[in-house]
Amino acid sequence: MPRFLLTRISSGLVVLLLVCLFTYLVFFALSPDPAVQICGKNCTPELIDQIRANLGLDQPFWTQFFLFVVGIFAGRTYGDGASTVDCAAPCLGYSFQSSQAVWDMIVQRLPVSATVAVGAAVLWLLAGLVGGLLSAVKEGTFLDRFTTGLTLTSMSIPNYVLALVLQYVLVVQLQWLPFPQAVAFADDPVQWFLNFVMPWIVLAVGYAAAYTRLTRANVLDVLRENYVRTAYAKGLPQSLIWRRHALRPALTPVVTIFGMDFAGLLGGALITETVFGINGVGKMAADSIARNDQPVIMGVTLLAGFLVVVGNIVVDVVYTAIDPRVRVNA
Amino acid sequence: MMPSQTDLTAARTTGSAVESGTGDTAEAPAADQAAGALRAGAGGTWQALRHDVGAMLGLGYIVLVTLVAIFAPVLTSISGWTPYEFDQTAIDPNLGGMPIGPWGGMGAEHWLGVEPGSGRDIFARIVYGARVSMSIALSATALTTVLGVSLGLVAGYFGGRVDLVISRIMDFLMAFPALIFMIAVLSALPASNRSGLLVVVISVFGWPYLARIVRGQTMSLAQREFVEAARAAGASGTRIVFREILPNLRSTIIVMSTLAVPGYIGTEAGLSFLGVGVVPPAPSWGQMIAASVKWYAVDPAYFVVPGVCLFLLVLSFTVLGDRLRAVVDAQEGR
Amino acid sequence: MKLHRISTAVIAVATTLALAACGGGGQNSSSGGGGFTAEPAEGGTVHVLQNADFSYLDPARGWDGGVNNFFRLVYRQLTTSAPGSAEDPNEIVPDLAESLGEASDDGLTWTYTLKDGLKFDNGDPITSAEVKFGISRAWDPGIGIGSPYLKQVIDAPKGYEGPYKSGDLPTIETPDEKTIVFHLKEPFPEFDAVLAQVNATPFPVDSGAGDEFIHEIIASGPYKLAEYVPGSTIKLTRNENWDPATDEVRAAKPDGWEFTIGLDPATIDERLISGQGADVNAIAGNIQPATLPRLQTPQLQERVLEFPGICTTYMGLNTTKKHMDDVRVRQAISYAIDRTTIVNASGGTQLGDPSTTILPPSVAGHKDFDLYPSEDGTGDVEAAKKLLDEAGLSDGFTMTLDIRAQESMQAQAEAVQQALERVGITVELNLIDTATYYETIGTPSQQHDAAITGWCPDWASSAATFIPPLFDGRNIYEKGNANLAQINDPAINERIDEIKAMTDIEAANEQWGDLDEQILEQAPIVPLMVAKGVMLPGENVTGLYSSANAATGGIDYVGVGLKDPEKG
Question: pTM surpassing 0.90?
Answer without folding.
Answer: no
